[in-house]
Design brief:
Layout (H helix, E strand, L loop, with lengths): L18 E5 L5 E6 L4 E6 L9 H16 L4 E6 L19 H19 L5 E5 L3 E2 L1 H8 L2 E4 L4 E3 L11 H8 L4 H10 L3 E2 H7 L4 E2 L3 H13 L6 H34 L2 H19 L1
Parallel strand pairs: 3-4, 4-5, 5-7, 6-8, 7-10
Antiparallel strand pairs: 1-2, 2-3, 8-9
Helix pairs in contact: 1-2, 2-8, 4-8
Length: about 280
């Protein structure tokens, strides 16, 4: 067993008590730890859409490591934005990429997923905005998800001409039935909040961010009387197949990504998508 992936280890929300706040890495995330409950809130803070670039991914990974090393009793992932949880992978990291940076970028994504999906402590996502692609990956890597109304979530890679890696699919399949996951992935479907609740992609709907944080806290507190060592081992056994397959194939996954992203047709598609975003921004 490798890395920390295999560690053994309403309307009105209850306010956090005696919280300590810290910034890590490049300052693109903050960690707030409630000294009373021992629960940490990891907030992504890369305006305007929390695009997952190299630096943000590195910060998320560092924050997860910090939370686990501080022996926090749980981790809540959320966003500082009022409308975007995370817009997913930063397209500019993949468009006409620098050879060394794009390699580091994908490795950082792999490491971040491994830390979150394989975390030894309870994890929950307070999804307070739209969550496409990589944003959905982070949310589904957590054990519990609550989401605000009138937003969307899903793995929409096929609509961008991109194929989701096996470990993206495995994360989705850990939440949804095989048939539902296959249809959603091949269609690049984005679920509304209500649709996501109906199919089980999220566990609850909450009115606002404070209520979402409170719902995540309640989930983590359900483990108060559970032996943390036994809980962690049980979780690892459920996820071991996905984690081990990833470790066995991660080098091949990296090379496959680098080959794919440098294909002329893929670069052309990304260029068209970037131009469409620019046109929308001008309107």
């Amino acid at each position: 067993m490798q890395r920390n992936a295999y560690l053994l280890c309403r309307k009105v929300a209850v306010p956090l008590m005696r919280a300590r706040q810290m910034s890590v890495g490049h300052g693109l995330t903050t960690v707030e730890v409630d000294d009373k409950s021992g629960i940490a809130i990891l907030t992504m803070n890369r305006p305007p859409v929390n695009g997952l670039n190299l630096e943000l991914l590195q910060d998320i990974k560092t924050s997860i490591d910090t939370i686990e090393s501080n022996k926090s009793r749980g981790l809540i992932l959320t966003s500082s934005s009022n409308s975007i949880f995370s817009a997913g992978l930063d397209i500019m990291e993949m468009y006409k990429p620098d050879k060394d940076r794009v390699r580091k970028f994908w490795i950082a994504l792999q490491d971040t997923w491994l830390s979150l999906y394989g975390s030894g402590i309870p994890t929950a996502a307070a999804i307070n905005g739209h969550s496409p692609a990589g944003g959905c990956l982070l949310a589904t890597a957590c054990e519990f998800r609550t989401m605000l109304p009138n937003f969307t979530i899903g793995l929409n890679e096929t609509k961008l001409g991109i194929v989701a890696p096996k470990w993206f699919m495995a994360t989705f399949l850990n939440v949804l039935p095989v048939r539902q996951a296959e249809m959603a992935l091949t269609q690049g479907k984005m679920f509304t909040t209500d649709e996501a609740l109906r199919v089980g992609l999220i566990d609850s709907v909450t009115e606002n961010k404070s209520a979402a944080i409170f719902e995540c806290q309640k989930f983590i507190q359900t483990f108060e009387k559970v032996n943390p060592f036994a809980r962690s081992l049980t979780k690892q056994q459920f996820r071991q197949k996905d984690l081990q397959q990833f470790e066995d194939e991660r080098d091949n996954d990296l090379e496959a990504f680098l080959f794919f992203i440098n294909q002329p047709s893929v670069q052309k598609g990304l260029g068209i998508y970037i131009e469409s975003l620019k046109k929308k921004a001008k309107q």
